[in-house]
């Protein structure tokens, strides 16, 4: 009996202890994942850039890089005629654009609940440098095409959402003004307030609907996973397109990308990077991937000391060339003040070259044959120099602070601009434009003065009495 009594007491104590543990330790509820909210617009900007990057890697655009961008006359004259180097610049710029997007995604990934997504930065570096895709984030061509449509849809709906939010803000401000307005009285004020309240109600419903469809109510895990898969796939595409063996992914099934159109493989059923479309083997031989894929490409984008980019003159010279182009087209419209303003834009190096070229040149410019030859020569120079200047303006404007969240409207590469242009060669070409403009400008002025003088003499001949 004593033993049974003792066992009952022990059982009672144990049961009470379990009850206290159960009551004191609440059952953890699954935490609701936080939505991206106001960061939706920033994320939409990242998706836009990824969408644009993927489009720029299409077969059509890759062929354009090879046949148009790299083959520009101006590029060969003052940038480089080494095709491997130029293709390397195109590859490096694409990789750098992707790296900047990945950097922003890495910051967003810190808010994810999934541990693999939180480690996006490390996983991306590992994939870029070693080709390891432990989470199988590289999509097939078909899946990526579907993913880009989803990205585009998210971007469009999110942009619409922000427009509707702005409209809602305008209506709410209008309601506040109407409530505090002393000019309206009685029924008129009441009716206006009711109308605004009704509009605000429906506008809020529209905003709520768009928040559900856009990125606003998506969780960080959902959004970052979409971005991560897109980034991995785009990097794989870059390596495939430019034939980079290091870390080459094998999960992109569309092996006949640009390789079938630029450098067709003899066996179209195989898929390997050797048949990659853009051969930059010379460049790859000089690359040291021990420092990292992106570090290597970033170094390649650093302009040499002999270029306009290194001298921080690329944008200034682009504006100068465009002004010269306008003046050469209509030299008769160039006034003294405009000519002085143009001279004030010239750096000391070009002024010295110009003085040396104009030394010994006479003041007379009355030879129409020579003027015609100068026009032809200036047209030829502008034919290859002007596109690089205009591309420089486009490239810079699309990367300004105001446009940084928008999609670039053109596929202008840095190699198509004056950024990597040789400084001495560019200044020599600009000097030639200035010398030619000087002659045809003086020729036009002399011809105009001569015509006015002859006209005055002719009028005097017709009216001898008035002249006397």
UniProtKB/TrEMBL annotation:
<dbReference type="Pfam" id="PF05003">
    <property type="entry name" value="DUF668"/>
</dbReference>
<dbReference type="InterPro" id="IPR021864">
    <property type="entry name" value="DUF3475"/>
</dbReference>
<protein>
    <recommendedName>
        <fullName>DUF3475 domain-containing protein</fullName>
    </recommendedName>
</protein>
<feature type="domain" description="DUF3475">
    <location>
        <begin position="38"/>
        <end position="94"/>
    </location>
</feature>
<dbReference type="InterPro" id="IPR007700">
    <property type="entry name" value="DUF668"/>
</dbReference>
<dbReference type="GO" id="GO:0045927">
    <property type="term" value="P:positive regulation of growth"/>
</dbReference>
<feature type="domain" description="DUF668">
    <location>
        <begin position="307"/>
        <end position="394"/>
    </location>
</feature>
<dbReference type="Pfam" id="PF11961">
    <property type="entry name" value="DUF3475"/>
</dbReference>
């Amino acid at each position: 009996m004593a033993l049974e009594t003792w066992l009952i007491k022990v059982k009672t104590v144990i049961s009470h202890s379990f009850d206290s543990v159960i009551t004191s330790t609440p059952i953890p509820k699954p935490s609701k994942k936080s939505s991206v909210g106001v960061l939706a617009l920033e994320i939409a900007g990242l998706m836009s850039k990824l969408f644009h990057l993927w489009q720029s890697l299409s077969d059509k655009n890759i062929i354009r890089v090879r046949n148009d961008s790299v083959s520009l006359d101006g590029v060969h004259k003052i940038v480089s005629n080494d095709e491997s180097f130029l293709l390397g610049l195109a590859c490096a710029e694409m990789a750098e654009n992707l790296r900047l997007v990945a950097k922003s995604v890495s910051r967003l990934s810190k808010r994810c609940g999934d541990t693999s997504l939180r480690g996006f930065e490390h996983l991306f570096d590992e994939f870029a440098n070693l080709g390891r895709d432990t989470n199988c984030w590289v999509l097939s061509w078909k899946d990526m095409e579907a993913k880009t449509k989803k990205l585009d849809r998210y971007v469009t709906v999110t942009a619409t959402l922000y427009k509707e939010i702005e409209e809602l803000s305008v209506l709410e401000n209008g309601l506040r003004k109407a409530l505090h307005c002393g000019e309206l009285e009685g029924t008129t004020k009441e009716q206006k307030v009711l109308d605004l309240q009704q509009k605000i109600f429906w506008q809020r419903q529209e905003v709520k609907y768009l928040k559900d469809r856009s990125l606003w109510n998506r969780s960080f895990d959902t959004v970052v996973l979409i971005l991560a898969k897109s980034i991995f796939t785009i990097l794989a595409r870059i390596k495939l397109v430019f034939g980079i063996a290091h870390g080459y992914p094998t999960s992109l099934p569309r092996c006949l990308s640009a390789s079938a159109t630029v450098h067709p493989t003899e066996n179209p059923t195989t898929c390997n990077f050797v048949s990659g479309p853009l051969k930059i083997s010379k460049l790859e031989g000089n690359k040291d991937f021990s420092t990292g894929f992106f570090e290597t490409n970033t170094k390649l984008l650093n302009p040499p000391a002999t270029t306009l980019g290194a001298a921080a003159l690329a944008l200034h010279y682009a504006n100068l060339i465009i002004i010269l182009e306008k003046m050469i087209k209509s030299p008769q419209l160039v006034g003294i003040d405009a000519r002085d303003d143009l001279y004030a834009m010239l750096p000391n190096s070009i002024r010295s070259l110009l003085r040396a070229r104009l030394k010994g040149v006479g003041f007379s410019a009355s030879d129409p044959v020579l003027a015609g030859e100068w026009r032809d020569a200036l047209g030829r120079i502008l034919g290859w120099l002007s596109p690089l200047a205009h591309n420089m303006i486009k490239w810079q404007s699309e990367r300004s602070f105001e446009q940084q969240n928008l999609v670039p409207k053109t596929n202008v590469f840095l190699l198509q601009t004056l950024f990597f242009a040789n400084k001495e060669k560019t200044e020599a070409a600009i000097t030639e434009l200035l010398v030619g403009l000087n002659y045809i400008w003086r020729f036009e002025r002399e011809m105009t003065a001569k015509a006015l003088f002859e006209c005055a003499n002719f009028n005097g001949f017709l009216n001898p009495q008035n002249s006397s």
